[in-house]
Amino acid sequence: MIDISTYSEKFITKDFELSKPVSAFEQLLYVLPKYSHDLLPKSIQTKLKNSEIYKLYPDNYEIIPIDNTKEYNWKTDIPNIDKNSINEFYQNLVLSELSEKELKRNQEK
What we know:
The protein is extended, with a radius of gyration of 20 Å. Helices cover 29% and strands 6% of the residues. By secondary structure, it is mainly alpha-helical. Strands 1-2 form a two-stranded antiparallel sheet. The protein has one domain (21-106).
């Protein structure tokens, strides 16, 4: 077997800019379904429910069993996330309204 490293010069590499990681609450906005928004701080929940992006979170969605007997392997048919809208919503939040405990929970580690 030939070592793949001998062909490494033929591979195209691309440099990527490192970006700043998202905060915990912003990440939760991306991944939580609507019925789990109670895991967010109350102030964020209230603003989320009164915002335009709340419609991005579907009430109902289809679960597709894909040749697996285990439910955790099934796919969900949900719309794509509008990252820009969620990011804009998060950037406009007034994080000073969060308690000290919530701010600590939101910090990068």
